Amino acid sequence: MAGLYIHIPFCKQACVYCNFHFSTNVAYKHKMLEAMVGEIALRKGYLQDETINSIYFGGGTPSLLNKEDLEFFFNAIYKQFKVDSEAEITMEANPDDLNENYVSGLAASPVNRLSIGVQSFFDEELKWMNRAHQATQSIAAVKRVQDAGINNVTIDLIYGIPISTTSKWEENINKALQLNIDHISAYCLTVEEKTLLKKLINKGTVNEPDDEVAHNQFNVLIDKLAEAGYEQYEISNFARNKKYAIHNSSYWKQQPYLGIGPSAHSYNIHTRSWNVNNNHLYIKQLEEGNTAFETEWLSPENRFNEYIMTSLRTMWGCEKTKLETDFTAQLNKIRTPLQKLIEEGNLIDTETHYRLAKHARFFADGISASLFV
Ligand code: SF4
Predict the structure, then answer these.
(1) Span from the CA of 294 to the centroid of ligand 1 (angstroms)
(2) pLDDT tens digits, residue range 30-53?
(3) Number of Cβ within a 10 Å radius of residue 266
(4) DSSP assignment, residue 314?
């Protein structure tokens, strides 16, 4: 099985923290979509005829695609790939795009899962983030989507915002729980280079996020969601009724995927490639019949580090048999730090797996990095 990621590189406006690739100029959207469909045809061999079990429209803002744009993509995808009849087909959508007409179009399309960028239920926080929507639109959008029969819904939330407080964060979680959805993704605000947020912090206009507050909010999040019956199956992802995202899980399970569109990454176990992150260059390359990506071969060390990083972020953890059979040399190099993490209580050593202890989850990336070879 394999995944397909489609990167829609357009947004209405720039959120303050965002470092994804997008442009706010949609005037050449059609040219872009033609180039992307061209890339699908050129790179169909990358997945070596594997059946697709997950298609993910991410971005950018995929809900800027209209009905015809979506049909254009689906025609190309179904023409070039074998798509499993049960495939998870997710679209990221912003609440302000999910009006009645748009939602009924989605319900009639192959899209069967929506990831809605709620981020917060407080207008002042949304304004601080420079989001294009208001809190009431999020609640109405989720309800509209459910009423239209799309029941596989997830929302994104952000914690650690400098103007927020832990009690407001609790209210955000409570509001999310009232939506009766099976999946929630919650991300810690990070300050990335070249973002507006970074500039504002450097100028002293906004405060830097406080790690301790973010850590408290993370603890509140995992306790409240566990109480409500959600499993934290990955550091930032919580599911009820075993509705784990197939798309994200395939990244963690190291299944191959093809990324289409500017800045999209692809992975096929042996290599990783990434498309140029410039819309005009991407279109130019594809118009000339060329692809627009660079590739690196993944060394056993790269693959080991990646496996440690992704698997330790999940509730299943890192599989001992896989380490012993696929990464014997690398495992031998990390026996001492591994043992230390177990003795310190940060890693749980089960019969089959190494898993992060609950109190260590907030530090997942740092702990993984300490095991890199
Ligand atoms: S809508 Fe998403 S991709 Fe676009 S600027 Fe905001 S966070 Fe970034």
Answers:
(1) 25
(2) 999 999 999 999 999 999 899 999
(3) 22
(4) B
